[in-house]
Amino acid sequence: MSEVLHxxxxxxxxxxxxxxxxxxxxxxxxxxxxxxVLVREALGLSIxxxxxxxxxxxxxxxxxxxxxxxxxxxxNPAARDDSRRGSEFYPRIWRAIxxxxxxxxxxxxxxxxxxxxxxxxxxxxxxxxxxxxARYGMxxxxxxxxxxxxxxxxxxxxxxxxxxxDPFEQEKSLALGVxxxxxxRDPYQxxxxxxxxxxxxxxxxxxxxxxxxxxxx
Length: 217
Known about the structure:
By secondary structure, the protein is mainly α. The chain has helices spanning about 1-10, 15-30, 35-40, 50-60, 75-80, 90-100, 105-115, 115-130, 150, 170-185, 190-215; strands spanning about 65-70, 70-75, 135-140, 140-145. The two termini are about 25 Å apart.
């Protein structure tokens, strides 16, 4: 598994699922906690990578990771299990994909597993993004697929992360207010200018706080 992760990292193919797999691998090998440095080493990265930091932060928000202290996290598999509720089709689809020869279609998987095509398609979109599926040409109008080496090295079905509330919902609203103030109103007006300044300060404060948390682990 580590060789696969190293290769994906070297090719720049780092996704949230790749980072999660590295964390699970560290835990399975006896690590009581993980750090950003350990995760980077597991991925074969010699320098800091924003994708690793963002994934760690998101996993803390989803409670997949528990922050023990600055720069130290404990993996919480129970939170991962929560995301599996209502997804009993995933293992069935996963077994079919891993056992299928290169060149299968999603319609083939739906037929074999007796799972609706929409379920297979949604799960396959996640698998492709996470590096488990790769495109393998066309069969008429149908896309063909193959399971990657990462899929072959992963016996248990990977589960998509739970959907969480957009962490930047408030900042997006503030940014929209700034754009609207410039485009639809007169920025020279004191009240409009004050709104622009207040919104920009709020956005800046959010990202300064994020950077401070990251820099301290």
